[in-house]
Model the fold of this input.
Amino acid sequence: MSIWIGLILDVVLIGLVTAGLVQAARLIRQLAGLRQNRLEMERFVQEFNATVTRAETGIKGLRHAARESGDDLETLVEKAVMIRDELQFITESADQIANRLSQSAASAVQRPEKTAAARTDAQKETDITSGETVKPLASKKPSAASASRAEQELMQVLEKLG
Done:
């Protein structure tokens, strides 16, 4: 009986050793898979780091470009504000000049009527015999020295219109 017990114990031990070997083989395969996965993970991390580095470089480039375009935009806005102010000044000046011109034209139209009635026949004969031509006040142009550039341009436009 002791042989049977020894034999049963040997079979049990052989079974346990075989089960241990099977488990060891599985663990070895799993460890090999983990090593392979670890290598793949290292490659992935390296590629990820390279991608992150490229992204950081791209972001720096975008920030630099944004700063430059922002500076350009800021200078353009400043220029636009200055031009707007100049145009507003020109418009106001043109309005004032137009008002003065319309007042001058209205008074020039009224003056020839008054002066024509007030002039005597003797004065008319003197003008005709002396060869002087009498020009109405509306046709008088301001001298170049007294008129500003805007006034001169406005007068040119008015002459073209009628």
Q: What stands out?
A: Residues 125-130, 132-140 have pLDDT under 50 and may be disordered. Residues 10-80 form one domain. The first helix runs from residue 2 to 118. The helical segments are 2-118, 121-130, 149-161.
